[in-house]
Amino acid sequence: MFPTVSHFIEYLFGVQVPLPFNTFGVFVALAFIAGYWAFTQEFKRKEALGLLHPIKKLITVGKPATTIELIYNGIFGFLIGYKLVYALLNYKLFVSDAQTVLLSTKGSLLGGLFFAGLFAYWDHKEKNRHKLPAPKTVEVTQHPYELMGNMIVWAAVWGFLGAKIFDNLEHWDTFVQDPIGSLLSFSGLTFYGGLICGGAAVLYIAKKNNVKVLHMLDIGGPGMMLAYSVGRIGCHMSGDGDWGITNLNPKPFSWLPDWMWAYTYPNNVANEGNLIPGCVGKFCHELAAPVYPTPIYEVIVCFILFLILWKIRDRIKLPGMMFGIYLMMNGLERFFVELIRVNTKYNVAGIRFTQAEMISSILFLSGLLLVLYSLKNKEKHANY
After folding, report:
1. pLDDT class for 189, splitting at 50, 70, 90?
2. Element housing 122 (H / E)
3. Which of 72, 104, 276, 369 makes a 20 to 30 Å CA pair with 57?
4. Which residue from 79, 281, 269, 104 is spatially nearest to 189, judged by alpha carbons?
5. Dihedrals φ, ψ of 313, to 5°?
6. pTM of the full predicted structure?
7. Could you write out the DSSP letters of every residue in 124-171?
8. How many CA atoms lie within 13 A of 16 on its CB side?
């Protein structure tokens, strides 16, 4: 396993390069990039079809930087400098435990003040460069795909919060033992929490900019499937605990690599299992028994599902149907992988189920209803 990027580089090239990046975080970033690409392509395609339209906005140009803008930039610069300079001055600690450095109150006061002044000065100079004797109001055209920058920020912030909240609800016993540590930890994220909260934030931005809900949902389907597939690579490579149940069964095919059938996740970032003899460092655990590597199954299946969605997107004309199909695919995929995945079980009226099984079932039924709704309102949505 490769808990950090440094471990991966050492595996490939035999050289130890100390970098403060964990593998899971890198693939989360790549997942957002993949989603950004797919969303943007769909925005442009739907605009070309006349389903989405650019909007006109009035903006004022030529104004100097206001005091409030300078203060905001100064505060932002201070936070950057406070942590960045401290991290560079304590680079070994930053590499070994980036979470502690970033989430603690420790920092460099001088670094913060320097960057605060630098950011405020940069904003002042930039605004003065475009300052006019008399500021004027001009009309600009904003294309729907230009919303993606704003959407990605909202999706990242609210998606992370949702993923943390749902994960702590799922692991309530651990949460009540250390609420602050659980909330601030970079590990422990539930996909469906991120999907629900991040998706709600994106829909809010879309609605504010006159993008109809059903079109926004359809745009998101393929991109979210692709992003999920990419993100799960990070889960597998880092060994973050999202693996399956113990698997002692013989391989069904001799050509199948062991790591795709039953894997012990050595050096996993979750630090679960037994200590590895002779291992020195932070990540020195390996599972006592091999398990199903469910993250890699989801990588493969969800990428195939993305290709299917991407292939059929031109053929689907009814608003809402694409997202309904996505929900059904997502729900089925996650429900079946839960059958061989380690997870917390709830017991209601003698029925045992996981949080993901319950939500995936709801998503499948919601997708089915959305498809039926689209078919039923075919004529109504002809000019949607």
Report:
1. low
2. helix 109-129
3. 72
4. 269
5. -65, -30
6. 0.87
7. HHHHHHT--SS-EEEEEEE-GGGGHHHHHHHHHHHHHHHHHHHHHHHT
8. 1
**C-alpha–C-alpha distance, residues 316 and 64, integer Å:** 49
Statement: residue 177 has pLDDT above 80: no
Q: Percentage of the chain surpassing pLDDT 70?
A: 92
Reported as a single tens digit per residue, the pLDDT across 305-327 is 999 999 999 999 899 999 999 99
- Closest listed residue to residue 190, CA positions, set 341, 366, 40, 23: 341
**Which residue type, as a one-letter code, is found at position 382?**
A
Nearest 5°: the CA angle 138, 143, 148 is 115
Which two tokens mark 243? 């693996």
Q: Report domain extents, the chain.
A: 25-54+143-245+292-376, 59-139
* DSSP helix/strand/coil, 244: strand
246 burial (CB, 10 Å; 0-12 / 13-18 / 19+) is middle
Q: List the beta bridge partners of residue 57.
A: 140
- Give the CA dihedral 115, 116, 120, 126, nearest 10 degrees: 20
CB 201 within 8 Å of CB 154 = yes
Alpha-carbon span 54 to 60, nearest angstrom: 19
